[in-house]
Design goal:
The chain has 445 residues and is α/β, with parallel strands linked by helices. It has two domains: 7-50, no CATH class; 59-372 and 391-412, Alpha-Beta Barrel (TIM Barrel). The chain has eleven helices and 17 strands. A six-stranded parallel β-sheet has the order 9-10-11-12-13-14. Helix 2 (107-117) links the parallel strand 7 and strand 8. The longest helix has 18 residues, at 212-229. It is globular.
Length: 445
């Protein structure tokens, strides 16, 4: 006789198989073992029923998070980042290899990173490796140790510990990732198209210094290199919609490339950014409203695959809010806890259904990076769940965020959609309890 399930979660509204329907989700040992009709006669040790204004979502999967520990833990750390993730409905993150000291570019550095994270993660955490000049011999060991792929820059990364790859070195590294079958994820801006002149507090000057052409040229290099090596590529944080036609054509021709954008590119637009508002500095930059509309259209057409945070926090001092100097301020936006409501607020205004948001922010990221058993409410998947109230509006109070530093461009803004609970492997995450997150390796189940 089969064992009685540990848990049944009943929801009149749930996102399952790309559609919204009423279900009873059966969980045993932290894994979804059956999906029944909402009113099915199922007995379990525990039962939880969602309120009428709540929707059951799969836990979000954020594959672009800068945790910064060890080395720059005053910017963010595993404890604060994963608490923020849990509060925002995110149940799995993948940590970027730069900004920590040492960066994750060798097997020894990965061991240091995993040791730093051990025992202080409220959600599950995977790791990217880094591709930098001279470390091609290290990529196979990192791949064997279970990193989810390799991050590289095509221009100065902003930190000395993680130098960028010139075109010839990029091709050499991507030939190796192609041999390994690994994903190469690329910060695609062409440094020669960027004017690093002093632009002070004027946002227009900062925006002009990093034109869309810089992304378009770099993405052409990524596509040509993927085509030449047969490698798998992923373009991170797409800002310039002008690159979409080239991406579309390359995929139509069989190039294995995917692309992400971020909540801030979908929520904000350059015309409403005040001079000196350095909390909105990121690279590549937030562009105009027409460009924003084009990014939304590309998501709708499938030319942009996913939406992830690019959570890139820093201390308040590094944002230079005292001077408002865009030239000196750190480029990065803290939004890990706020990604779902930020995207949903804009999606709802545009008539985009919640099913699309779930696909962009949960299912597709998990599938692209090989996070088996994540990103969907399905039999055999981990019971990672988000309880979301999509009609509830609220105002962002930075003092109630779990990010280590209270700097975010969403401060004081009204968003729609509240995360009321987050479940990891069938148990609700309580931030007052000990953390239960696991450190993941590629291919884990």
């Amino acid at each position: 006789m089969a064992a009685e399930p540990d848990l049944v979660v009943r929801a009149r509204r749930a996102i399952v198989d790309g559609e919204e329907r009423a279900v009873a989700v059966e969980v045993t040992g932290g894994v979804i073992t059956a999906i029944h009709a909402y009113d099915a006669d199922v007995e379990a040790t525990h039962e939880h029923e969602l309120a009428d204004d709540e929707v059951l979502l799969p836990g979000l999967v954020d594959t672009h998070v800068h945790v910064n520990e060890p080395g720059r833990t005053e910017w963010e750390g595993f404890a604060s980042a994963t608490r923020a993730a849990a509060a925002g409905g995110v149940t799995t993150i993948v940590d970027m290899p730069l900004n920590s000291i040492p960066p994750t570019t060798t097997l020894a550095a990965l061991d240091v990173k995993r040791e730093a994270a051990q025992g202080q993660t409220w959600v599950d955490v995977g790791f990217w490796g880094g591709a930098v000049p001279g470390n091609v011999p290290d990529l196979a060991d990192l791949h064997g140790a279970g990193v989810f792929g390799f991050k590289c820059f095509l221009l100065d990364s902003g930190v000395d510990e993680f130098p960028h790859l010139e075109a010839h070195a990029f091709r050499t590294a991507m030939a190796e990732t192609a041999r390994l079958g690994a994903l190469m994820i690329v910060h695609a801006e062409d440094g020669e198209a960027i004017d690093e002149c002093e632009h002070g507090a004027a946002y227009a000057g900062f925006l002009e210094s990093r034109p869309g052409e810089a992304e378009e040229r770099a993405i052409e290099l990524v596509l040509a290199t993927a085509r030449a090596t047969g490698g798998r590529a992923h373009v991170v944080h797409l800002s310039a919609s002008g690159a979409v036609p080239a991406l579309h054509a390359a995929r139509a021709a069989g190039v294995d490339v995917s692309v992400e954008t971020c909540p801030h590119y979908l929520h904000f637009e350059a015309g409403s950014i005040a001079d000196g508002a350095t909390e909105l500095k990121c690279c590549p930059p937030i562009r105009d409203a027409t460009n924003r509309d084009a990014l939304w259209a590309a998501l709708g057409s499938g030319d942009i695959d996913m939406v992830v945070s690019d959570h890139s926090p820093c201390t308040a001092e590094l944002k230079r809010q005292d001077t408002g100097d865009f030239a000196e301020a750190w480029g990065g936006i803290a939004s890990l806890q706020l990604g779902l409501p930020a995207v949903w607020t804009s999606a709802r205004e545009r008539g985009v259904p919640l099913t699309d948001v779930v696909r962009w922010m949960s299912t597709t990221p998990a599938r692209r990076v090989g996070l088996t058993g994540k990103g969907e409410i399905a039999v055999g998947a981990d019971a990672d769940l988000c309880v979301f109230a999509p009609e509830e509006s609220w105002t962002v109070d930075v003092t109630r965020l779990h990010h280590k530093n209270p700097v975010t461009p969403y401060a004081g803004r009204t968003l729609t959609g509240t995360v009321r609970a987050t479940w990891l492997r069938g148990a609700q995450i309580e931030l007052a309890d000990d953390p239960r997150g696991r450190l993941l390796r590629r291919g884990d189940r």
